[in-house]
């Protein structure tokens, strides 16, 4: 994903339904989007656009942990709301899983945190083979509210077993 995708990015970044469960607030200007592209997207070690007919309709990323946590990465994704429920993100997650453990062989665990009320996102992870490990109670302050988060994980050994 790069600055050429800015107009596509604005479709989901300005949608309150999309940002509802995200740590970021709904965007209100292209300047905010350009800042995001420059300061977050460009230097990110693994962030890709989710595309449909050569248009970016979302994004997916894996953020590596550091130090003693370097064996873990955190999965995140976002999609234009009109494409929700069509299996697009599930397919994107499966594609990421099939390559991230190869690209980053030091990675043993891929995890995702999902707001407890975001049932659709939890279903995506379950369909992609992630295991729900539990609920992290009162885990994060998001948009002024303390939220419970479900934690999901997938281990590299589980991906290897499925491919055998």
From TrEMBL:
> What would be one Pfam family of this protein?
Acetyltransf_3
What range(s) does the N-acetyltransferase domain occupy?
A: 1-148
Q: Which GO terms describe its molecular function?
A: acyltransferase activity, transferring groups other than amino-acyl groups
Q: Which residues form the signal peptide?
A: none
Where along the sequence do coiled-coil regions lie?
Answer: none
Name the record gives this protein: PAF1 complex component
Species of origin reads Heracleum sosnowskyi
The opening ranks of the lineage are: Eukaryota, Viridiplantae, Streptophyta, Embryophyta, Tracheophyta
